[in-house]
Design brief:
4-stranded antiparallel β-sheet
Amino acid sequence: QVQLVESGGGLVQTGGSLRLSCEASGRSLSIYAMGWFRQAPGQERQFVAGISWSGRRTMYADSVKGRFTISRDNVKKTMYLQMNSLKPEDTAVFYCAADLRPVEIVRSNANEYSYWGQGTQVTVSS
């Protein structure tokens, strides 16, 4: 079993920054592909960023490229999402996700992830 706990959400003004963290417990983090997704009210959950188990491969949604950076620390069993130049349209609940398959790949489809955190709210005021 894997438990994922997100933190770092909050209220920030347009143009501000936040860093989200996702801490994993249970099995070794090093075998997982991980990702960040977000869901705004009335919308479907959408892919934000993904990272391979080694951290060498990353992928971003077009809407966040150049503003968000995903990273991970396998020793600390933690994944991060540095969010800069935040916009009101970034407002959503952000979820982290983990996949158990030991493959060096980035996964962008929510259906490919087996474990999810509870989510952390990010609100960007205009």
